[in-house]
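Case 388 in the screening queue. Each case pairs one protein sequence with one candidate compound; here the compound is flavin-adenine dinucleotide. For every case the pipeline is the same: read the inputs, emit a complex structure as tokens, and attach any notable structural observations.

Predict complex for case 388.
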Amino acid sequence: MNQERHDVIVIGLGAMGSATAYHLATKGARVLGFDRYHPPHQFGSSHGLTRIIREAYFEDPSYVPLVQRAYELWAELEQLSGRKILRQTGGLMIGPPDGVLVSGARRSAEEHKLLHQVLSSSEMRARFPILSPESNTVAVWEPRAGILFPELAVQTHLELAAKRGATLKFNEPVLRWEPDGEGVRVFTATGIYSARHLVLSAGAWLGALLGASADLPLAAERQVLLWFEPGSQAEQFQPENCPIYIWEYAPHRFFYGFPNLGDGIKVAVHHEGQLSDPETIRRDVSEHEVETMRLLLRRFLPDANGILKSTMVCMYTNTPDEHFIVDYHPAHPQVLVVSPCSGHGFKFSSVIGELAATLLGGQQPRFDLSLFRIDRFARFSPDPVSSK
Ligand SMILES: Cc1cc2nc3c(=O)[nH]c(=O)nc-3n(C[C@H](O)[C@H](O)[C@H](O)COP(=O)(O)OP(=O)(O)OC[C@H]3O[C@@H](n4cnc5c(N)ncnc54)[C@H](O)[C@@H]3O)c2cc1C
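Case 388 output:
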């Protein structure tokens, strides 16, 4: 048994765990973090070079104050580290005017008085000649949207956490944890560790770590990322000319993309992937999956349909309503759950890290977290002991 008792143990040091470790260490907590790999790595949910950040949040207007704080924290992290972690490009939410994407983005923009514009299909084509929207399509343009660099963000949070005193153990999977009075004990192959609080930020592995202690309806979903060379109009895909975009191409079906930052034009379908086990997920990409993407490109972004440069596979961890979980374990108030984020959490990781540190410091968060409550699923086992 490791003699030193920590204030907080963090299991999983990806997007949420790295930010949590950083904010806890900044507040002076004695933090011990574990990851089964060495983040940033390519086995979880936080790789693939780019992530979208946007403010006119179509999913629900209550995310807007959170993302606004996230922007401030990303800027702070850039200043502290001297690294460029966010690139602003502006963003387009494209679809039918009454679709969930456009109507949701407009609602958030109007409720929170965000800078935005609604573009008709011809205005879109004139301003961004690579886009080929159908005539009944409009877009919400938001100037503050842009790109986060996820691997760099995770690495920076981890480096600064360590500088501020956090002990971070990589390539050391946690096998199980258990309550220990009002604290917790955590077991790995090489040690037993104790702390007053536990943060579970294991992404797609969260269900396995919760074991029998909480029966949450979580699903890991395989997602394919593809990078193409521009087939034509290459200069129009440069970040000065090309914003990030999400496109509702059929009711409740989306694809999204980024400008060419030197690695090709990255595009992907949002959801529509196979449910997978993170241990056995298929990591190769099939011809059929490439062709499915090409069909969308031919229709909506024909100039992007050039040579395939590379592909990657990543995982979403979904809840049934696709909102996050940021809440205490219902049977163990010393345990805080800060994932999963249903495929749209990265942009918030900076603020979720800060929130976790606020909650564990016993303070009241200044955001409404009711959307993220764990008891909305109400399927908890009375068995208080977790196992892997
Ligand atoms: C393809 C794709 C595109 C996305 N696009 C966007 C986007 O544009 N914008 C956006 O905001 N969000 C986006 N997201 C969502 C966002 O990336 C995720 O919500 C976020 O990265 C999840 O972070 P996490 O910390 O929960 O998981 P992860 O970063 O995967 O971290 C979990 C960590 O836990 C570790 N772990 C697991 N089990 C154990 C154990 N037993 N012991 C120790 N360590 C363990 C893992 O090794 C891993 O490092 C996207 C996600 C994907 C997959």
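Case 388 observations:
- The chain has a mean pLDDT of 95.
- The longest helix spans residues 64-81.
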